[in-house]
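Continuing from the previous page of notes. For each protein in this section, the sequence appears first, followed by its structure tokens. Read the first protein now.
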Amino acid sequence: MKKWMTILVAVMLVLSMTTAFAAGVPSKTSTTTTTIVGMTGVTGDPLPEGFEIKIGEDTQMTTGLIEEMTEFVKGGSSVIDFFDPEVQEEILKHLNDNKPDTEALTLDDLKPWQIYEIVSVDAINYEEGMGDVIVTFEFATPYTMGQRMVGILDTFSGERVEVEPNVFEFVSEKTVLDAEVTEVVDGKAHVAVTFTEESIKKMEDAVASALSIFSEPMK
């Protein structure tokens, strides 16, 4: 059973949103403004009764993550540089798969990209062999059709490490997920995120999980 921990998670909303933000870093949780409007297996088969990917409780794990990101970009760094090189490469792979070389993005192209959403998520009752699951979220952020993005799933074990004398950070494993805007309804974007079988199992085993949407900046 997962442990419950209290937290403040930060997330930035733009344009029609009134929350203030700094340099592409979230500033208020989107957990309460996000809903799940659809869920299906990638094969099209019905999902087993009892299985669910859902909006979770905001957790203390994410507080440290947001604080780290905020401090990082305060110095003028881009959000993409916050991630380890292997995560950066995985982001590029997801964005560039099945794209001609002439359309391939580079790390420099991702410098202005931002994170507008961080939402707590959870998974229960996954059955072996179900495969990947596509979850459609409705976000308040007014993403547009064709706006490029990926999901970044943080799964936390609850472990903390000392990064400086008396300064501790929670440990998380990052998994990059495919994401795309499927439609915009009444100014709210529907974003389909493909949770892989591996990522769902990680969520079930984690103390807490958080999904970030890393995207092109709003125009």
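Done with the first. The second protein uses the same format. Note its length before scrolling.
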Amino acid sequence: MKPVEEIYWLRFYGCLAVFSFHFLDRLNQHVDNVYLDLARIPAVLGTPIFIFISIFLFSIRYGNQPPHGFLTKRLQYVMLPYLVYGLLYAISNYLNLLRLGEPVDLIEQLREYLIYAGWHGYFLIIAMQFYAFYWLYSRYRLEPWLPAGPWLIVSSLIGIGYWGLTRYYQFEPPGYLLWIAPLGWLYLFFLAMLMVQHYPSLPPARRQRLSWLRWLSRPEALLAWLIMIAVFTWFGRLEHSSKETWVIPLFILFTLFTLTRLRNVHATPLVKRINRYSFGIYLAHPMFFAMVDFVHEFVPFPLWLYCLLLLVVGMAGSIGLNWLANRIPGGGMLFGKTLHVPEQRRASQAGCSLS
């Protein structure tokens, strides 16, 4: 099978979006203005992109027959890094609070990070739930009862209602338990399944039953939604994260547009290199941001140098750690495997996210 070039670009974008979102959070501690909020708009798509990619590639690769040991393998590749990095972040935060003289309990920190998923690795818990759902959906042939087209609409409404109501009633369980519930992300599963059904192109416009897909993939639809988001942002009426109601239509419009425009655009060597280390970058970059913050506490930098160090140390450190871990036996399993990304276009299909 030919490489899925679009996925290289989507994973590249998703990796940089997550990295940029956390970078902007750091910068926001020093600068707070509407321009930073506008910059966050494209960055909120990072987490949804990774979930979408995984389901899309599993479905296009395995169809309705996930291989034996599928879930066991996913547990190893996803949950072991979750535990390793969760421990690292929990212990480092515990030590930092002790250094600052704050009252802190190690067991409480471990519970917050590992049980309540109170760190950016909450994404791995979401992903694992959808890997299990994909296995059930395929193994028990649920497509006739849960057709992707109608259920994309239903699940989008469920997600919008979930994020909207929890915000309205200020429902805040411990950690990120609110975020890891699948209700807010269910639309990503059915969007991925629907795109696989019609890959590599959307249904012809004459097929009225699904002509809405082609209409939504038009650049005018995405541009109109972006303009509306920018206007609301300019007047301070929106919160910016991947867990907002307005992100769901934005992601659907963005995905339909990009998957129909990037098919014949070959990924560059830089795009493929970021793809190769994307999992490690996702997991490790806040650790290197924290190192820059620690040094900055004792040796204050001008803002431009602080930003430059965050970008360089965060990216280079994450790639370097992932490169080193994957050269140690078992290191990739613990710290995140690098993806197999063929250098030549004639090579096998693009490596699956988190595989």
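What the second structure shows: The first helix runs from residue 5 to 28. The radius of gyration is 20 Å. We return to this in next week's lecture.
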